[in-house]
Amino acid sequence: MDSLTHSEITALLLALGVLLASARLLGELARRFHLPAVLGEILAGILWGPTVFGALAPAGRTFLFPSHGGGALALDGLTTLAITLFLLVAGMEVDLSTVWRQGKSAVSVGVAGIVVPFALGFAASWYLPEIMGMEAGASPLIFALFMATALSISALPVIAKTLMDLNLYRSDLGMLLIAAAVLNDLVGWIIFAVILGMLGTAAITLSIGQTIGLTLGFTVVMLTLGRGLINRALPWIQAHSSWPGGVLGFALALTLMAAAFTEWIGVHAIFGSFLAGVALGDSQHLREKTRAVIDQFVSFIFAPLFFASIGLKVDFIANFDALLVGVVLLIATLGKVFGCSLAGRLSGMDRRESWAVGFGMNARGAMEIILGLLALSNGLIGERLFVALVFMALATSLLSGPLLQRLLHLKKPRRFTDFITTRSFVNPTAAVTREDAITELSYAAAQAAGLDADAVARAVLKREELMATGLGMGVAAPHARLPGLQAPVIAAGLSHFGIDFDAPDACPAQLIFLILTPVHDDGAQLEILADIAASLKARELREKLLQVNGLTEFLALVKSGQPH
Amino acid sequence: MDSLTHSEITALLLALGVLLASARLLGELARRFHLPAVLGEILAGILWGPTVFGALAPAGRTFLFPSHGGGALALDGLTTLAITLFLLVAGMEVDLSTVWRQGKSAVSVGVAGIVVPFALGFAASWYLPEIMGMEAGASPLIFALFMATALSISALPVIAKTLMDLNLYRSDLGMLLIAAAVLNDLVGWIIFAVILGMLGTAAITLSIGQTIGLTLGFTVVMLTLGRGLINRALPWIQAHSSWPGGVLGFALALTLMAAAFTEWIGVHAIFGSFLAGVALGDSQHLREKTRAVIDQFVSFIFAPLFFASIGLKVDFIANFDALLVGVVLLIATLGKVFGCSLAGRLSGMDRRESWAVGFGMNARGAMEIILGLLALSNGLIGERLFVALVFMALATSLLSGPLLQRLLHLKKPRRFTDFITTRSFVNPTAAVTREDAITELSYAAAQAAGLDADAVARAVLKREELMATGLGMGVAAPHARLPGLQAPVIAAGLSHFGIDFDAPDACPAQLIFLILTPVHDDGAQLEILADIAASLKARELREKLLQVNGLTEFLALVKSGQPH
User: Fold this and answer.
1) Same domain, A191 and A248
2) Is a pLDDT exceeding 50 seen at residue A563?
């Protein structure tokens, strides 16, 4: 029986460990700068791949990430599994009913968002194949079809994330964008699956007609009969098996088998797992907790490993072709933005909103990269075009958030934890009276922000006299607006005995937040107060917060307790 | 670059899908008969392996589970990863502080539970190697050392599960068993790691002394310095990264790297991941939610896949040697039970309790099987002895629960959901008054149990007159003890409008459980009442329960809401 050698196992585990660690690290760094995590994850792979680590230490790279033999095959199997599971999660996010609820305008934006870029992409690739980066020897028809699809796909996860970041997810515009993206995703993947089928790489020999028939048939069966059966099976499984193991096992086994089926008919495993995800995610019987277990393990373990593995395969510097990147980016953006904006305008939106729809839908994200990778590994495109597609996907995703924000004049919601520093964290406060507490915290805040401590204390006490600031639940938030302040400053005090802040529930305050905001910033104070109240709603969390040793633990607890 | 073919990917995904589905299914079946899930999981592998599927359809087996080529290597990599993660979870369950809290008696039981079976196993294997199943050409010393270790290891997860099932986990006896098993596990694995090191299979060339030094050094560093650093790092990571991705990524990356290190020095990857798990699990900063995500994904996806893969490797019928199984089982049980019972007796326990300690510690479970598999793949033992070890592990695990139960005269706690049938589930009840509701539910219960409905209603109403049975929170539990009843019967009624059952909180009852218990069964009624109160504590759950369509959905909801 063939098995991995000790040396291959050592290299495989180490490779997975360093890839995961660096992908997560750079992913977090990217988020810190308000960039998508996938950017950092791919960058981690580029660092470990031929581009950097391979160029500096070729022997190290050959050991860790071998291109031949058992280690390479095992890593290939693992990344295939990783992407299959990633598409399961992506599919679970698709909510078909949203499309119908949003009605005609969603359908028209969704359809225009496919048809216009598809037509533009097809025309450009058919008439100017050299400029679009076609490799010599490729079939012009399949190449043009692929490019047309690649340019018309949207990235539902990126769009959803952007809308959540901007607090737009539940707005009319947000739901419209989501609905259009769902439609776009579904149709885009079906077209791509058909193109892959045309390549004839199936494990069995099928004619194009058979492949298309099987693909569409499988899609229809999964989204009707399969969806219904899953919805009936889930409560039965929950009732008659251990929790949550029964449902988890069912969901994963179903996904793997659907993936095996689509791989078998030649349209790649991920199409099956995506559809399985759509069918599973649609059931109201799939509990939030089960979703969370699958989502978190896949999003934070498998997805980073997969995206980092992309960087391992290609030299991103040697294959960087600025002209090609520019052309691909331009055509992709032109088709998508104009198509969607036009549809938005025709559905009766104003100019600003319809531009927002266009740039919102323009995000390509991970989906584009996955599509490009499949095309690369099937010999449909070369490394140069693959690199251009990756850059296009990242650039459109990066631009989408800031452009939406600017077009709609939005601001990111501020978190109260962003404004507490080590200096302004008083634990425990020695104060017993409200006046003492305010004075002590005013000094801490003044020191942290370089203000006049007495002036701060006076302003806060004056505000406190007007109306007490006990919020209830053992939390108080004395506050003041100060001239000359550039950004909010918060001092936090933890009191073991509790201080009376005259709260509506008469509960003495043990968590006291002194909030200073700039005079000119109208919303800051209310925003921060609302965030404090929402973040500290759970009694357990408030009790645990009183036992922390320092600010780091305090922030860690607030974060782990917050909805996300 | 080597990669898997479409046909290999199809087979790999299908193999994982059917293995997972059948392992989970048989695992659940095993639990239904109060057997450990691992038994069903291994059985699933035996069915798909050479023993059954391979004998019936050799070509099918070669396609699905190839022994050579890319598919075999990818599957090997995946099962290696699966077991590495399984040991991470096993390690996370180890709580070192328990050992010290239980003090001397835990240490003496733990030590005796290693020394006595080790000595007995070593003596038997050294003097009677043929009877103990040594292969020709093996080193007698290493063989005797391995068998001694194999016979002295305990299975912490099985012991913990057995104690939880019997409601003994938090008792003195339970904590003593856990503490002794933790010590046993830790020492046992260190000895085994050293033996593996002696085989000289490391990726680097090391002397025995170096291997032992590195192994012990790594253990000490991980459990002191590593543990401390992890405990400090966790809150920092939680505070400065996305939740829970930062901690998840850190935990997994650390585990993979520790596993790579121990594989590199020749003591197998799982030793490193086990120690990483101990160090991680020991930190109070590792949140319950993060543990749950890792635990659930690994226990319900990776573990079943791994245990099923064991059955794939060996023909369990051809290699079944009844005499060898008997000898191994006898010596294993003799050494463990006598060693631990004696230590228990010497620490001042009574005879019954010390026997309970002996049989409690005798469970070998998954740990033994993993050890056997490593020995098999390293050529230390043959397939015959491996099969005998698997049978011994399963038999000792199976016996442990029932023997403990009998020795300590225990009963399993009963769940109220076990006694509701489709016939006794009334949704919605048309009753408006308490009397009507009791009469209606009495008829449903009587029909389900074949009793005289009027007699039931009279008995319950009589009891209700003595004292109202509204429990509060919108739940009522009218009840009666009936002569001639063999087992409890419960009828459940859901009322949309609520019926006054004179509850302490004056809340009208919407969930009404009519409970009938046998006259001779003293505890049943209280047990069921307590279970109802505990299971329905969450308001959200009670609200959802009122909207179910049938009993299956009702049971599914109660189950998913219950603590486990």
Assistant:
1) yes
2) no
B243: domain CATH number?
Answer: 1.20.1530.20
Gap between the Cα atoms of A179 and A191, Å rounded: 19
Element (H, E) at A124: helix A96-127
DSSP B381: S
Nearest-angstrom CA–CA distance, A60 and A33 = 31
Q: Which residues of A touch B246 (CB under 8 A)?
A: 24, 28
B10 to A203: CB separation less than 8 angstroms, yes or no: yes
- CB atoms under 10 Å from CB of A141, counted, come to 13
What is the C-alpha end-to-end distance of chain B, expressed in Å?
47
Give the number of A-B residue pairs with CB atoms closer than 8 Å.
Answer: 285
CA distance B120 to chain A (A): 32
Across the range B2-7, mean pLDDT stands at 86
Residues A375 and A450 in one domain: no
Per-residue 3-state assignment (H helix, E strand, C coil) for B235-291 = HHHHHHCCCCHHHHHHHHHHHHHHHHHHHHCCCCHHHHHHHHHHHHHCCCCCCHHHH
User: Of the listed A240, A268, A285, A479, which one is catalytic?
Assistant: A479
Angle at A2 between CA B272 and CA B26, to 5 degrees: 70
To test the contact with chain A by mutation, choose from B3, B12, B13, B256 the residue with the greatest count of A C-beta atoms within 10 A, namely B13
Domain of residue B199 covers 87-407
Residue B425 lies in a domain: yes
Query: B420 and B328 in one domain?
Result: no
Encode pLDDT of B323-358 as tens digits.
999 999 999 999 999 999 999 999 888 888 899 999
A235 and B301 in contact by Cβ < 8 A? no
Least confident of A14-23, B96-105, B398-407: B96-105
List the beta bridge partners of residue B425.
B492
The answer to whether A246 contacts B24, with C-beta atoms less than 8 Å apart, is yes
The residue of chain B with its CA nearest to that of A243 is B560
- B77 in any annotated domain: no
At A391-419, the pLDDT tens digits run 999 999 888 888 888 888 876 667 888 88
Smallest Cβ distance to B245: which of A80, A235, A299? Answer: A299
- How many domains, chain A? 2
Is B434 in the same domain as B377?
no
Q: B296 contacts in A (CB within 8 Å)?
A: 244-245, 248, 293
Q: Is A520 one of the annotated active-site residues of the chain?
A: no
List pLDDT tens digits, range B229-244: 999 999 888 888 877 8
Question: Are residues A465 and A373 part of one domain?
Answer: no
Region B253-265: mean pLDDT is 94
Cβ contact B6–A252 (<8 Å): no
Nearest CB partner across the interface for B2, out of A69, A252, A300:
A69
Only one residue has tokens 């000359």, namely A484
| C-alpha dihedral sign at A544, A547, A551, A553 | negative
Q: Are B132 and B274 in a shared domain?
A: yes
- Pairwise CB contact (< 8 Å): B18 & A69: no
Cα of A406 to nearest chain B Cα, Å = 25
Catalytic choice (B6, B34, B479, B564): B479
Q: For A82-91, A154-163, B467-476, which range has the lowest pLDDT when averaged over its residues?
A: A154-163
Burial (Cβ within 10 Å: 0-12, 13-18, ≥19) of residue B433:
exposed
Report pLDDT digits (tens) over B485-501: 888 999 999 998 889 89
Per-residue pLDDT, averaged over B12-26, amounts to 95
Which tokens sit at A389? 């597609």
Residue A491 lies in a domain: yes
Across the interface, of A300, A377, A556, the residue whose CB is closest to B3 is A377
Residue B359, CA distances (Å) to A190, B170, B331 in order? 59, 18, 14
Predicted local confidence at residue A339, as pLDDT: 93
Nearest chain A Cα distance for residue B16, angstroms? 7
